[in-house]
């Protein structure tokens, strides 16, 4: 799948480890509500002698923190989630683009179509491509 934003694909410029670190940094900075979930994910991975990948961070936040916020109608967390998605998509990574597509865009269309209009510009563009 092509990256929806202009510019070179970050995946061809930096090593995967750096992409993972940047993904974590973007999520951590944009979503304070996700700090506990991220710390728990990292602890689980450490117990298994592993480290999380960028897809695991995105999945953890979308299936855990975001879904909980939707159930509680927590507009602030939902808004920060969409900001986080925009920040991730602006990284111009094909891997992250695919992860956001699979774990966020398609899920919004299937389970939360009423929230699509609140999505960030790049996320809405991604959703509209389906």
Structure description:
- The protein has one domain.
- Helix 1 runs parallel beside helix 3 and helix 3 runs antiparallel to helix 4.
- The protein starts with 15 loop residues before the first helix and ends with a helix.
- The model has no long low-confidence stretch (mean pLDDT 92).
- The longest helix is centred in the middle third of the chain and has 19 residues.
- It has 130 residues and is mainly α.
- It contains six helices and no strands.
Brief sketch in words of this structure:
It contains six helices and no strands. The chain has helices at residues 16-30, 35-47, 54-72, 75-89, 94-111, 121-128. The longest helix has 19 residues, at 54-72.
Low-pLDDT runs: none
Which secondary-structure class do the elements indicate?
A: mainly alpha
By DSSP, the count of extended strands is: 0
Query: How many helices?
Result: 6
> What series of H and E elements makes up the topology?
HHHHHH
Rounded average pLDDT:
92
Task: Summarize the main sheet.
Answer: none
Task: Give the C-alpha Rg.
Answer: 14 Å
How much of the polypeptide forms β-strand, as a percent range? under 5%
The rounded distance between the terminal residues' Cα atoms is 12 Å
- Total number of distinct structural domains: 1
Helix content: 55-70%
* Shape annotation: globular
Keywords:
68% helix; mainly alpha; 6 helices; 130 residues
Summarize the topology.
Layout: H1 16-30, H2 35-47, H3 54-72, H4 75-89, H5 94-111, H6 121-128
């Amino acid at each position: 799948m092509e990256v929806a934003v202009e510019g070179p694909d970050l995946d061809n410029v930096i090593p995967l480890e750096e992409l993972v670190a940047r993904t974590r940094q973007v999520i951590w900075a944009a979503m304070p509500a996700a700090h506990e979930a991220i710390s728990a994910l990292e602890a689980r991975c450490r117990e298994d002698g592993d480290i999380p990948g960028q897809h695991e961070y995105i999945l953890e936040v979308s299936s855990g923190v975001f879904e909980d916020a939707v159930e509680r109608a927590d507009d602030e967390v939902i808004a920060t989630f969409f900001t986080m998605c925009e920040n991730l998509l602006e990284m111009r990574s094909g891997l992250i683009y695919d992860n956001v597509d699979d774990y966020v865009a398609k899920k919004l269309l299937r389970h939360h179509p009423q929230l699509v209009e609140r999505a960030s510009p790049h996320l809405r563009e991604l959703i509209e491509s389906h």
